[in-house]
Amino acid sequence: MQEDRLPVSIITGFLGSGKTTLLNRLLRHPAMGESAVVVNEFGEVGIDNALLVASSDQVVLMESGCLCCTIRGDLIETLGELMAKRKSGAVPSFRRVVIETTGLADPAPILQALMSDLTMLNHFRLGQVVTVVDGYHGARTLDAQPEAVKQAAMADRLVLSKGDLVPRGVLERLIGRLRRLNPIAPVIEALQGDVDPGRLFGSAGFDIAEKTAEVRSWLAAEHGTHPHSHDRNRHDADIQAHAFAFDEPLAWEALAGWLDRLALEHGEDLLRVKGLVNVRGQQEPVVIQGVHHLFHPPSTLARWPDDDHRSRLVFIVRHLGRTELAVGAPQSTPLPVGRTS
């Protein structure tokens, strides 16, 4: 196999773990200048791509739903289109591809596709799998979500985020659990995604021979009967994505009151909240990020990513319907974006 194939590295991790924050910091580093980025989001409204500092030529948004199973065909098609655009000069030349998966993605079928599709093998080789683990919610997530266990077990590098939010003893117990789950991958602590890319992306790629027997069995298994739905707004019978848009600028007090109520009453079932908000009196878009009961302090982007200045919020939830989420919304008629369920 030719040695000039481009490495495809994967950044994965459960909802809200800090994948986009990590990728955002990495893309500021000179060593990542010749990178193409593929962002996969769950739900019809893309938010994560707007939070990345890279130019629009570098970032490709896949809105087809969770990157797994039959959806992986969209990934192969996307990579093929990237190569064609690279060859024609339609996008800047790149020397690596980084895929940020949705937090609900099972990495096994993605890796299997990248290792077995002949078209891909002509142009790409599998690079490193980097899994971001939330230091604050990580233990609970590993208990509740099998996807999170697979993401950690398959990693070549484990990046531990939000370690400053928990006592050191709690963090050490989580690190110990991760090392038992994946004895090969180094655990790298990173605050706000601050880690040198050289620690994550080396010359050696994903090596199945180094993985545990359980990981090898996952990769060898037939994934055609993957149990969850491929509606881009529904992951399984319990987990759904609901998107809201608001035409007019929002009063911050009303928005904050709505989110506070949701966190207080439904925090256990708020797997992820993210959005760009047009706040009354504020020119720049305000970024909203939350996981369960924990909402990060709001931040702003330098500019809106496009001409659409509506407020857009996405809720990835368990056992919550759209009507329950809309109670107390700052406008009486929140507008659905795309399909609902």
Walk me through this protein's architecture:
The protein is an alpha/beta fold. Helices cover 30% and strands 23% of the residues. It is built from 11 helices and 14 strands. The protein has helices spanning 19-27, 48-51, 72-88, 107-116, 118-123, 138-144, 146-153, 168-181, 213-220, 252-266, 322-326, and strands spanning 6-12, 35-40, 59-62, 96-100, 124-134, 157-161, 187-189, 239-246, 270-277, 286-291, 294-295, 299-300, 311-318, 335-336. The strands form 2 sheets. A 7-stranded parallel sheet has the order 3-2-4-1-5-6-7, sandwiched between helices. α4 (107-116) packs across α9. The longest helix has 17 residues, at 72-88. The termini are far apart.
The shape, in one word, is: globular
Terminal CA distance: 46 Å
Radius of gyration: 19 Å
Number of strands: 14
Q: How does the helix and strand content classify structurally?
A: alpha/beta
The description of the largest β-sheet is: 7 strands, parallel
Strand content: 15-25%
- In the predicted model, the low-confidence regions spanning at least 5 consecutive residues are 53-57, 63-71, 222-237, 337-341
On the 0 to 100 scale, the average pLDDT is 78
- The largest sheet has its strands arranged as 3-2-4-1-5-6-7
| H and E order | EHEHEHEHHEHHEHEHEHEEEEEHE
Total DSSP helices = 11
What percent of the residues sit in helical stretches (DSSP H or I)?
Answer: 25-40%
